[in-house]
Amino acid sequence: QEKSCHLSAALLGEDSEISQDQLYELLKYAALGKCHKAAQPSWCRIYHQSHLAGVVVVVLHGMSQLHFYRFYLQFRHLRRLFQHRFTFAPSADFPVSLYGEGADLKPQNTAQGLTSTSSECIPKSSDLQCDPIIQRYGEKKQGLTSYTLTLEEQEKNDYPIKGSPGCKGYISTECDQQRTDSSPLFGLDCEMCQTVKGSEVTRVSLVDARGRCLLNELVRPESTVLNYCTRFSGITKKMLLPVKTRLSDIQTRLKNLLPHDAVLVGHSLNSDLQALEMIHPSVIDTSLLFARTEGRRFKLKFLAKAVLGKEIQCEQRLGHDPTEDARAALELAQFFIDQGPTKVVAELNLEMLLTAEKLAEVSQNKAVLQPQGCGFQEQLNEPPPLSKPCFLDCLQVTGQKPLLLGRQGLDSSDLCQSNLSTSNKQILQRALEDVPLSKFSIIQFSLGAEYLASHLHAGLHEKVRSKLTDMLTIYAGPFGENFCMKSVKKEFGRCGPIQSLTVVTETFQPYVCIQYEVLEAAQLAVESLDGAEVAGSCIKVQRPVTAAMLDCNVLIEELELDVENEGVIYVAGLKKSLTETDLQEEFSQLKDLETLFLPKDLQSGKHRSCCFLKFQTAQSAVDARETLNGWSMKGSELRSRNALAAGHLWRWIWQMNHSNGKQGKHIFYEKMEQLSDCEQDLRKQVKKLDQHIKKLYRSLQNNTLCVVLFPGVN
């Protein structure tokens, strides 16, 4: 079984900042490996480097961490696809150190006949009409009820139907309420074995619309097992020996879990319902939703990779994970409903991606049979000459031909000489063709010079600083005239470290303005103290109401769901006398605890009254949070919630809060109107850029190391 190459870099807190040298050593080892005397990176590990299919570095010219968080909601795919994120502190122009000065970033010609031309990558409008998805659902975006199977479609695809001859004794879910476009979706998947009776369930998983697992149970078959189908199900005889749950128990639990208007989602869901011996009237089958011609169907594994950018059913793992499959099917349906048929067809072009995937597999197999140095890379044109030694020179010893794509005028050194008309879209199309043929690729996108002016960057900096300040700030009150400020500070201090606390005197009754040092503390205060009695008064707790804060709840929700925060919880109420060793000892009883991060004041070095705990699984984090809320430690009551800010973001927020906000303010106010107009366009450009990254990412082969670099504006 082929080993999977993967990166391990579970850093938390201050360690989540990396230097130029650290990134350089990661790329060097990934490209060269031990056989060329490259050393493993000092700060992370690449396992099975020899199985790397390639390295892709995407450079977003002129953009920095500031842009990422100013346009956090627009970078929807980028933040969901990439599981590791680090603050990058370059000591020089890092792209130049990669390419070398004067590098000619021109599109490279591919070997003839191996890839389609860029014009062929985009379906024409006439082709859209012939697409089976458009023929089935039309071009317009519709609600979920338009994608549920009709009774005739269910009958045609072997779904259990009430009253049909083969469904005698089947149990109905009793979900008979009228469906609407706002009915809840549930993902369902089962693993089966072969018994003397036929196909019987051995494992059942159900997830809700947010992907949360509601049911994941092993089931003991009623009949004698002939084949456990372990290769696909992962189920063994030993696993089922202690299991007492029977099919009837699962049927009852599903009936109790599903509301009366539930819509079930699955991939070839008819097999699951037949094995469960259950009838459900409203279903979305993703194997039919993403329609193909002549009755063919896409596999769930392919759709998850092509549409969601997710790897499921990994070969190195024994059997499928039904929860993972149920979640993938659910997200595929949500994507289809959210985007609509036209976007699914025009932007994904699934048939082309499937063909490209098969070609890549054929190419990889052929390359394995060729002698060293005679791979496909030799069919590419010679790389552009580099005027001074750089990272890419290292690749010369391997005979690899690096791929360099970019736009003209990307910086003052004229690093990227290319056709003036070359746009980000054209670069993407060329990358989709050429990247699969190259072991090392650098793709450079740019927003354009008009968006990178210094005064616009300064304006963005002030807007981000101002919004972060508002998100860290809460107002509490009203209080009585002679309220005790010490009591207020003590109660709100239990939510986390306070930066400032002031009394608001402009109101009829006194209010208190509290600015915290971490986002989690402010959110915890809003969630736990709104409506509570503090200092003898029943108070309301809220954030400032400004135009910039109208999407605050959306932003908080997205931060909480960020892959960086998966399995990480925030704990407040710690006594400052406790050391990291004390905390490790106190928290040692928590299951699957992986890392503890104790934030410190970056000036004094003293730790704050809170910490972050990272767990091996999201469920362990949920269990720990429930355990810790109200837990007494050394006489102090703890409070806990899901993390919102990854380690690098916590550090950055601290720096933003302690920077001089007045610096250059005349620039901000003079240019604010111009910035407002420009920022609207910038949002659209960033959204397009995010789509480009998604498409490029989804076209990559398995075991490809992909790095997206925001190199900054200096």
Automatic annotation (TrEMBL):
SUPFAM superfamilies: Ribonuclease H-like, RNA-binding domain, RBD. Keywords: Exonuclease, Hydrolase, Nuclease, RNA-binding. Residues 472-546, 567-645 form the RRM domain. Pfam families: RNase_T, RRM_1. GO terms for molecular function: exonuclease activity; RNA binding. One of its GO terms (cellular component) is nucleus. The keyword Flavoprotein does not apply. InterPro entries: Nucleotide-bd_a/b_plait_sf (IPR012677), RBD_domain_sf (IPR035979), REX1-like_exo (IPR034922), REXO1/3/4-like (IPR047021), Ribonucl_H (IPR013520), RNaseH-like_sf (IPR012337), RNaseH_sf (IPR036397), RRM_dom (IPR000504). This is REXO5 exonuclease. It comes from Alaudala cheleensis.
